[in-house]
Amino acid sequence: MILKLIVFAIIGIFIYKLFGGQLPSLGKKAGTPKRKDAEGDTMVECSKCGTYVSVEETTLINGKYYCDECA
Ligand SMILES: [Zn+2]
């Protein structure tokens, strides 16, 4: 009985991590990978809060840039 509960707990954690790891990576797919490029230093304005942030720290949604806090 206890062994079953442990197995179910491990499966639960595995599924949780699977979904927890997938959702953020989907959002970052549209962005640029963390790399030091010349274009990575371009500053863009967040469409929501108006803060200027490095383009590599933004998320592009429907052609608009959003900072990490607003994305
Ligand atoms: Zn913002």
Task: Summarize the topology.
Elements: H1 2-29, E1 43-45, E2 52-54, E3 59-61, E4 64-66
Antiparallel strand pairs: 1-2, 3-4
This protein binds zinc ion.
Give structural notes.
The protein has one domain. The chain is of the alpha+beta class and 71 residues long. The strands form 2 sheets. The chain has a two-stranded antiparallel sheet with strand order 1-2. 39% of the residues lie in helices and 17% in strands. The protein binds zinc ion (ZN).
List keywords for this structure.
single chain, two-stranded antiparallel sheet, 71 residues, 1 helix, binds zinc ion, 39% helix, 4 strands, rod-shaped, alpha+beta
What is this structure, in a nutshell?
This protein is of the alpha+beta class and about 70 residues long. Helix content is about 40%, strand content about 15%. It is rod-shaped.
